[in-house]
Sequence to fold (288 residues):
Amino acid sequence: MFFFGLTAIISCSSDDNDDTKSLTLNITGLEDLGSDFIYENWIIVDGTPVSTGTFSVNTSGELSKTSFSANTNQLASATAYVLTIEPNPDNDVAPSSVHILAGSFASGATSATVSTNHDSALKTDFTGAIGNYILATPTNGPNTNEKSGVWWLDPTTSPGPSAGLTLPALPIGWKYEGWAVIGTTPVSTGKFTTASGVDASDTFSGTMEGPPFPGEDFLMAAPSGLTFPTDLSGHKVVISVEPDPDNSPNPFLLKPLVATVPDNAMDHNLLSMGNNAAASNPSGSVQR
Fold:
């Protein structure tokens, strides 16, 4: 589940039944959601979401189904297309709050641009996201295994540390999550919705209180195959955007901020992340 993009094209052609048309998807870059979740297509007609069917994606990124029947009049009058992530099985006929992709049809238009930036999706493309971090292990005191922790904070500001992340607010259905990818194993530092304040996890940290920012010390309870404390030098750190509820314990395809920790990184020094939004964002077009 690492560094995928997304392109969507929807086209319509008449079925033998004059009352329906085919909604045909040509989507690349979607990832396998596992057995407990599924993608669902919706068209918005007179302000009401109308499902046109569900599909899954295999580990190669191939869609299980690409053609869906839709009522001709509804499709012609639809003002928008929305792609959601739904639980599987799904007992709710309404769309979930996890909208990953959307686009508007102008009046009479046969095509529309779709993106995460649409108001019916995530409302942002993440290209303005900024990330800075330090290596430190504040939860076991000073000067001990300092390269075994990552914290998204800026220690250079006065009168004290400030947030190291500049991130857009997320709509309901999404949360941010920090990661250290140690070798090939992604290890979560916790989920959060704001750049200031503690995140939702201190699973691997020590017994002392950490700073009020997202981050984690990797000191104990190491996942299978890893040993803590460790040294994050040369490994990746990532900020991802995760569905809520989450489909997987691994990072989702949206990864707006990524960095490789320098081999010669000094602990407690401010380090920067690269903006990876263009490489991981969903994007594309829809055609009817």
The longest helix spans residues 72-77. The radius of gyration is 21 Å. Residues 1-17 have pLDDT under 50 and may be disordered.
